[in-house]
Specification:
The protein is α/β, with parallel strands linked by helices. The protein is built from ten helices and twelve strands. It has a single domain, classed as 3-Layer(aba) Sandwich (Cytosolic phospholipase A2 catalytic domain). Pfam families: Patatin.
Length: 392
């Protein structure tokens, strides 16, 4: 959330350069919201941010919600239920507790990764298939076509990474696309499957697969890999492997970019595991940490140089840096403890879930009111946290 000054730091004017995307020739004067990965921790942190964005009247103004991994769970639930929200004349929705908070907290009260891994190793069904089945408790038989009409609501883009092409795969109501293969209009992929692919973190939860019909592709979008098996089956891994903040589509199209980052801070290990599985995970954590740091640096540089408007808040942020006298209290020792929540799809006590939601609420409030207050209809400070437990 704070923006450190460093005159010697390299400035990167165009951090994202993938050839195929729905890239606009000029930036749209709209708002994009990016929801990062980070397991249940990020999923709940984003819930708190969305609650505050709704109170500030910004949620209704958002044109695009781009998500990866744990952020895609939250985005998927919000998108599936968007049409059921009732917005008042101030752009504030009622029903957020019932339609977003309660289903997310129910999921966070269940461990799904350990059981999926054990069953996936023991039986023929893959781990990712088991995870997708668990997500059906949230999404049922809803598909990408159950996301809201993009002419009157935000476009929800769920991102995954292709293990085959190394590219970002975007899944929305309008399209499913890999620029090296092509684009399918109005895909009927199950939301549980799309979110499962977006959150298929390697090595244990990856890969996920989506079966395709080559005849469904728009011939005018065929890429250099429009051929079997690429146009018959997508083999996917966590969206955060390619873009762990969900920035790609947002950056290329919108003038205002808001980023909610629930990714944890990598901790030092004196004796890293030597077995291949856990050592591989540690290596992936190192890579993720470096890529996340680079993306964040590029994003903050774009704010400084006025290439983009917007703001960033993270689970590791320090709201004291915003110099907002009426910010909700967020002592460093308490926020550091929340940020240390493991990146898992593992049951969390209700009290801890509430703390994470409260922190997402407070962090987003401080960032929005100090950096993009012109977008806010009423910038009055929140009187309290959503939950009385606060951050402690």
């Amino acid at each position: 959330m704070s923006i450190e000054s460093d005159s010697n730091r390299e400035q990167i004017s165009e951090p994202f350069s993938e050839p195929f995307s729905e890239r606009a020739s000029t930036l749209q004067d709209g708002i994009a919201l990016c929801l990062s990965g980070g397991g249940y921790r990020a999923m709940l942190f984003h819930v708190g941010a969305l609650l505050r964005l709704n109170e500030l009247g910004i949620l209704k103004q958002i044109d695009l919600i781009s998500s990866v991994s744990g952020g895609s769970i939250t985005a998927g639930v919000l998108g599936m239920n968007w049409s059921k929200l009732a917005f008042d004349c101030h752009g504030r929705a009622t029903g957020m507790e019932r339609l977003l908070v309660e289903p997310i907290m129910r999921l966070a009260s269940t461990t799904i990764d350990r059981r999926a891994i054990l069953l996936g190793l023991s039986f023929r069904a893959s781990v990712s298939v088991r995870i997708a089945r668990c997500y059906r408790s949230l999404f049922g038989q809803s598909t990408l076509q159950d996301l809201p009409d993009e002419s009157i609501a935000p476009r929800f883009v769920i991102n995954a990474t292709s293990v085959q092409t190394g590219s970002l795969v975007r899944m929305s109501r309008s399209y499913l696309a890999d620029y090296r293969v092509g684009l399918i209009h109005h895909p009927d992929v199950l939301l549980s499957q799309a979110v499962g692919a977006s959150s298929a973190f390697p090595p244990f939860l990856s890969p996920a697969t989506i079966e395709l019909n080559p005849e469904d592709f728009d011939p005018g979008t065929a890429g250099d890999l429009f051929c079997p098996p690429f146009n018959q089956r997508m083999v996917l891994t966590d969206g955060g492997v390619y873009d762990n903040l969900g920035l790609e589509t947002a950056w290329k199209n919108y003038s205002t970019v808001l980023v909610s980052d629930g990714g944890g801070k990598m901790q030092p290990h004196e004796r890293p595991a030597a077995n291949w599985a856990f050592h591989s995970k540690r290596i992936l954590d190192v890579i993720d940490n470096q890529v996340r740091s680079l993306r964040k640096r590029q994003l903050l540089d774009s704010y400084r140089s006025c290439q983009r408007e917007g703001t960033y808040w993270g689970i590791g942020s320090n709201t004291h840096n915003e110099r907002l006298p009426d910010a909700l209290p967020a002592p460093d020792d308490l926020t550091v403890a929340i940020a240390a929540t493991p990146t898992r799809l593992k049951k969390l006590p209700e009290s801890h879930q509430q703390r994470i939601i409260n922190w997402g609420y407070a962090a987003s409030d401080a960032a929005i009111r100090s950096r993009v207050s012109e977008r806010v209809a009423d910038d009055s400070p929140p009187p309290r946290f959503p939950y009385a437990i606060g951050l402690g």
